[in-house]
Specification:
Number of helices: 10
CATH class of the largest domain: Alpha Beta
Order of helices and strands: EEEHHEEEHEEHEEHHHEEHHEEHE
Strand content: 25-35%
């Protein structure tokens, strides 16, 4: 196994491939970014676990599709967990930005994804910086998110894909292997079966606690593995006072005046990071000078 760089960063995606095969992989580790999501909300343990897996999946998929833009995974259901969302934004200085949120109607009694989101769906949205927006819908009809995503790749992308996701003790991690279309460089036709069987031996503690290169060596020390420089991840929210003021302007002068007369100010709060943006009467000329938008930015509520 050869590596071009090793790093002590706790939040990163590690890309790798197996020489002379049609198999590639991604390994994601989240610690600080996941902890910052949890620190902003009070979630029951079962919800924390599922949200951590969703965040790890968002990081993996963003790296896998090599997206320049925003990828979001949104769980919608009528079950105990009514909403979960994880979003990964590329291009930020210092690494891709992750954020996430969950909503639940009562203290959850379920323990796995299927129990918590009965009859739910996963909406996958790719919003590239340039190009068309893509959206896919996945039924949450399996006991965990990894199996649901594997089904998505098999049905929609026609690419055999195996995924392992774990979250516990304020750490989240994911491992993805994908079989690429065969070509002349593949001189190992049995590689896919062998490599996925080895990956299936990974234990939760190994996936969460081992450094990427250590884990890859433990799994594949007999394989010819090429490891690329890791890509850093961090918590980050796309909300801003500027974006919020542009959206508030869409309410119109009369509505804004009425809110300020009744409440003395206008406040919005980002659901993801809990940042509160406050506007007073003297800010009205600035607000009304904005072009406005049709609705508040996703993740905001108006007070």
């Amino acid at each position: 196994m050869t590596a071009t760089q090793d790093t002590p960063e706790t939040d990163q995606v590690q890309r790798f491939l197996f020489d002379h095969t049609a198999v590639r992989g991604e390994l994601a580790h989240l610690q600080q970014s996941y902890a910052e999501v949890l620190d902003r909300h009070d979630y029951p343990p079962a919800v924390e676990e599922q949200l951590g897996q969703l965040l790890a999946a968002a990081a993996l998929l963003t790296a896998t599709v090599k997206l320049d833009g925003t990828l979001s995974l949104e769980v919608r259901s009528q079950g105990e967990v009514t909403l979960m969302m994880a979003e990964c934004n590329t291009g930020a200085q210092g690494g891709d930005q992750l954020r996430g949120i969950a909503r639940f109607s009562r203290e959850p009694q379920g323990s796995n994804l299927q129990e918590l989101t009965q009859g739910g769906q996963l909406v996958i949205t790719l919003d590239p910086t340039q190009g068309k927006r893509y959206q896919g819908i996945v039924s949450l009809d399996k006991e965990n998110l990894a199996l649901c995503l594997e089904g998505y790749f098999a049905n929609s992308e026609q690419l055999p894909t195996r995924i392992w996701l774990e979250a516990a003790n304020r750490k989240a991690a994911g491992l993805l292997l994908q079989q690429l279309p065969d070509d002349a460089s593949n001189t190992d036709p049995d590689a896919w079966n062998r490599l996925t069987q080895l990956a299936a031996t990974v234990q939760q503690q190994e996936l969460l606690d081992l450094e990427p290169l250590t884990l890859l060596h433990r799994l594949y020390h007999e394989e010819t593995l090429r490891v690329f420089p890791p890509h850093n991840l961090k918590f980050g929210c796309t909300c801003s006072r500027e974006r919020t003021s542009e959206a508030i302007a869409s309410l119109g002068e009369a509505e804004l005046q009425a809110i300020i007369e009744e409440q003395g100010k206008i406040e919005t709060q980002c659901h993801f990071c809990n940042t509160v943006y406050t506007f007073h009467k003297q800010d009205l000329p600035e607000l009304l000078g904005k072009p406005g938008a049709n609705q508040l930015p996703e993740g905001h509520k108006l007070h």
